[in-house]
Each structure stands twice: as C-alpha cells, then as structure tokens.
Specification:
461 residues, six-stranded parallel β-sheet, Rossmann fold, binds GDP-alpha-D-glucose
C-alpha cells in the first residue's frame, strides 16, 4: 500500500477524538492505515525566513509543519486566499480585493511548501492536496521533478465562468490545476462550471470518463461529495450527557420550539438573511410569537478581514433589534452565540431542535446539514431547511429546499417545518439519513483515493 501524504493549509486533528470533524477523521483514517504524512502551516508567523520544518510522530502518522513569515500570512492567507479566492468562489465579487503582492505571496508560499514537501516524499507516495490555498502546489512540485500521483480536492464551490473571469489571474489558476492527476469537486455543478471554463475560455476538450484536456495535459475532473462520520455523530447526540443538555435546554426555553443554526461567522453563510427570515416568520405568523426561539451559534473566523467585522456588526444589530421588538420578560426570540461550542453540545443541540436552518448564499457542501440529519431521533425527527445553493442540496432533496435570498420563502419553510406532521417528518428524515450514510466521509475518501490510484494503474497498463 502506498503511503498517503496530505497537504493542506493547516493540519487538523489526528486522533479519533469526539471533537474531530468528519474531514479530520476521514483523512486521519487514511493516514493511520498507510503510515502517512500530513504537512501544513503550523499557524504561527515569524521574522525568520528559513521556513524550517518541524516533525512529530503520532503512532504511525507523521505531522510536518512549517511557519510562515508575517508578510506571507498577510499576502497568501489573508490576502489572496481569503480576499480573492474565497469571495470569488462564493460569488461575492464585490468583496474581492486583488493586489499583485497578494498573488506574489500566494505563489511564494505554494513554492515554499513545495520545497518542503518535495524533500519529504518517497517514490511510491500518493499526494493529496486540500483546498483553495494550494492551487499551484502540484505545478511547483512538478517543477521540482516530482512524478508521484498528486490529487487535489476543492472544498469550496468552483464558480461559473462569468464569475471566474473577473479574477485577474483566472487562466493561471485553471492552468495550475492541470498539474494534478485528479481534480475533485464537491458537486456536479462545480464540475460543469470547470468544464465550461475549459471548453469556452481555454479551448480545451471534455473527454469521456470525466477527463479534460488543455495546456497539453490531460487530467480527471470529477465530483466527490464530502460526507461526515455519521455513526460517531449520531452516537454523540444520544449520550446521557446529550439528553441532559436537551432537557436543560427545554426547561430553560419553557418547551418552546427551537430553530437552530450553526455556522462559522462568514458572509457566505447567509446569516443576516436568516435572521430577517426569522423576524418575517414572527410577522407573518403571529401565533409563533412567544412559541419559538432561534438559536444561532456563529463562532468567529478570519477577524483580521474587514468584511468579517462588518458581518459581525450586522448580526449583532439584527439580533438586538428582533429581541427588542418581539421579546418579552420570559422569551428571548433570538439567542445568538458568537463563540465556539463543543462538538458534543452541538450534536445535542441539533437533536433537541425542531428545525435545522442551513441557508448559505453559497457553500461548497455544508457539513452542518448532514450533521443535523445524523443527530435526529428517527421516531421524532426535526426538519432540515436547506439552501439550494449549498452543495448538500444536490443530494439532500428531501429537505425543505429554499432560496436563501428570499426572506419570505425561508419564513414559510420555517412555518412548514414547525407544523409538519410526524409521518412526513419521519419519511423525509429516513430518506435523508440514508443519503447521508451512503455518502459518508469514508466513502468520500475511498472514492477519491481510488480514482487517484486506479488512474495510475491505467497509465502503467
Ligand atoms: C468548508 C466549506 C465544506 C461550526 N461551528 C462550530 C463547529 N462547527 C463545525 C460544524 C461543521 C464544520 O464546523 C463546518 O463545516 P461546513 O461544511 O458547514 O463549513 P466550512 O467551515 O465553511 O467548510 C464547506 C467543508 O469545507 C468540507 O469540505 O462542506 O462548504 O466551506 O462540522 O459542525 N464545531 C464546533 N464548535 C462550533 O462552534 N465544535
């Protein structure tokens, strides 16, 4: 069995802890089974430009990390990755802030990481690169003589050609991807967007077997929808501690219905629209006043970027104004928590909520939707409301699918979810649970790695 080498911006958890998310668990399993290596930025910045790599051993797995300079962090991470690629891929061209020095920093860090990874590789290794921070890593590795199989998985959406064309270095980005042997996307829509760009703007060819040809190279571009570790999340929602949390929640909320949302505080997640929709629910359906609470958990991320500060202000203002307008001495309509909550508490919160509200304006997949389904009691399940612009909607069609820009549509869906008969809730949940279980984290990892290794055998044949 070949050794798996994962490269990502940050190295996530490794041990099978109940706080580790699906991605960390799925990748962790692959690494443990193959005695693998995970390489990434260590999260620190330094004045020292030596990019010294540190190693640590965790059972059969090696973790290798390196620091970045302050200049790299600003240009590569805060700049090109999170003020160009993230907003553009989430269709927020108004928030794209392109600077040449950001792009230079991005190329520089990809090159520095390639130096480190190239020196760590063994001849039979299989390299799996994660996400938008590292579009050009394979091209840099190839330039250093690396011939091993290299795959790439994009966790965020691949935008439609019209949007991508607005990014000044769009051709460079797409060309970079052709140094990978397999390019994985979350959804079929992403694959179609990529193919359209190749055929309409590069003059490339779309071939059978998910192959694409351009820039004198051929590669595979296919959807591998990411999933979660369903059993472990479901188990977390049914521990005695979880039941205790649910009971406490109900006591405190005087048995009112709960609508729950859990998202990093990011402008792609549609949080202001969601709060406005909750206000609209109270306006359109006055019988819901004093009967339902929206619990929104939104831990902070990327606070050094202005757009994230702005969204925080907007949400605080909105939740305050809804509570001021509708709240009573014993009812706070919106409970907004701008902190990280432990994973086991989240599982309990999902199970204890009648409605799970997942309404991003754009999302690669959205694992919260899958976690909400996994956490439900099959005999008395809650209802998932899901944005049509979350990758998860391609699969989870038994959810109540909404347009996240349409406040009234979300409000009506909340009313529908809160009053849905038990038989319909069970039927929808059963179908959703089956899909979440089928496309779980293990399935995602195995199908990607199969594509990457099978393709190697085809080439040798
Ligand atoms: C990217 C793509 C794609 C959230 N708040 C807390 C917390 N979380 C956990 C959730 C879930 C994860 O974080 C978020 O995953 P999502 O998929 O919803 O979104 P992104 O972070 O934007 O992830 C996305 C994903 O990559 C995987 O490919 O689906 O489209 O944007 O697991 O439960 N966890 C804890 N406390 C919190 O307060 N412990």
């Amino acid at each position: 069995m070949s050794r798996i080498v994962i490269v990502s911006n940050r190295v996530a958890y490794l041990e099978k802890s109940n706080q580790a998310g699906g991605l960390a668990v799925a990748l962790g399993d692959a690494l443990r089974d193959s005695g693998g290596l995970w390489f990434g930025w260590d999260g620190t910045t330094t004045d020292d430009e030596s990019y010294e790599v540190s190693h640590s051993k965790h059972g059969s797995v090696t973790i290798a990390t390196m620091p970045l300079t302050e200049k790299d962090y600003k240009a590569y991470y805060l700049g090109f990755a999170n003020q160009v690629l993230w907003p553009a891929c989430h269709y927020r061209l108004d928030l794209v802030n392109f600077e040449t020095n950001y792009f230079d920093g991005y190329k520089r860090v990809n090159a520095k990481m390639a130096d480190a990874v190239a020196s760590l590789l063994k001849p039979d290794d299989i390299v799996w690169v994660q996400d938008y921070h590292l579009f050009s890593l394979a091209a840099e590795l190839r330039a250093r003589g690396v011939t091993q199989r290299i795959g790439f998985f994009l966790h965020i959406p691949f935008p439609s050609p019209g949007v991508l064309l607005a990014v000044p270095v769009h051709q460079w980005l797409v060309k970079s991807l052709f140094s990978y042997d397999v390019i994985g996307f979350q959804t079929h829509t992403d694959v179609v967007n990529f193919q359209s760009f190749i055929s309409e703007h590069i003059g490339g060819e779309i071939l059978p077997g998910d192959r694409v040809r351009a820039f004198g190279r051929e590669t595979i571009a296919r959807a591998f929808p990411i999933g979660i570790d369903v059993e472990s999340f479901a188990d977390m929602a049914t521990t005695p501690e979880a039941s205790d949390i649910i009971q406490r929640l109900n006591r405190r909320n005087l048995a009112r219905a709960h609508v729950v949302g859990v998202d990093r505080l990011d402008y792609s997640k549609g949080l202001p629209e969601r709060m406005k929709a909750f206000r609209r629910l109270l306006e359109l359906y006055p019988d819901k006043q004093n009967k339902v609470t929206l619990m929104q958990i939104a831990p902070p991320t990327r606070e050094a970027i202005v757009a994230y500060y702005d969204i925080r202000e907007e949400l605080e203002q909105l939740s305050g104004s809804i509570n001021g307008e509708y709240g009573s001495f014993d009812w706070t309509p919106v409970r907004y928590i701008h902190r990280n909550v432990s994973r086991d508490k989240l599982a309990a919160l999902f199970r204890g909520s009648e409605v799970g509200l997942v309404t991003p304006l754009r999302d690669g997949m959205n694992l919260v939707a899958k976690e909400y389904v996994a956490a439900q009691d099959a005999d008395n399940p809650g209802v998932l409301i899901l944005s049509r612009f979350a990758g998860a909607a391609e699969d989870l069609e038994e959810a109540l699918i909404v347009n996240p820009y349409d406040i009234d549509d979300i409000a009506h869906a909340m009313e529908q979810g809160l009053s849905m008969p038990i038989q319909e809730r069970r039927e929808r949940h059963k179908a959703l649970y089956e899909r979440v279980r089928k496309n779980d984290a293990t399935h995602w990892r195995e199908s990607f790695l199969n594509a990457l290794t099978l393709n190697a055998e085809e080439v040798l044949a």
